[in-house]
Amino acid sequence: MTTIQNLIEHRIAAHFDPVFVEIVNESHMHNVPPGSESHFKVVLVSQGFEGQSAVKRHQSVYAVLAVELQSGVHALALHTYLPTEWEKRQSVPSSPNCLGGSK
Fold it and tell me: What is the DSSP code (8-state) at residue 82?
């Protein structure tokens, strides 16, 4: 079964040639029905980000995932790094729980 998470992984791998990529479905942390695929954390390490600001990196990910963002993906928490930046970091902060809506 193809999931939105699988589609995101495929598009990112095809476009960015990542050194490291992790896609985490964080929908369960939000006010959405069980099994939703609407909120994701994306950790993406690619040499292709060379010379790009954080804003440009994020814009390039949004462009690649435009179809998903227009058809059900509500939020992306993006963590984008060059390989040298990732070597120093090796982790990203945990995402906070949703403060909006009520269950």
Answer: -
CA 17 from centroid of its chain's CA atoms = 15
**Among all chains, which residue has been given the structure tokens 């095809």?**
14
Residue bearing tokens 């040499």: 47
Q: Are 10 and 20 in contact (CB under 8 A)?
A: no
49-76, pLDDT tens digit by residue? Answer: 999 999 999 999 999 999 998 988 888 9
**Pairing mode, if any, of strands 75-81 and 20-25?**
unpaired
Q: Are 26 and 77 in contact (CB under 8 A)?
A: yes
Phi, psi of 81 (to 5 degrees): -140, 155
DSSP string, 27-72: GGGSSS-TT---EEEEEEE-GGGTT--HHHHHHHHHHHTHHHHHTT
Using alpha carbons, select from 29, 13, 43 the residue that is nearest to residue 74: 29
Are the CB atoms for 38 and 71 separated by under 8 Å?
no
How far apart CA 57 and CA 81 sit, in angstroms, is: 9
Q: Check pLDDT > 80 for residue 103.
A: no
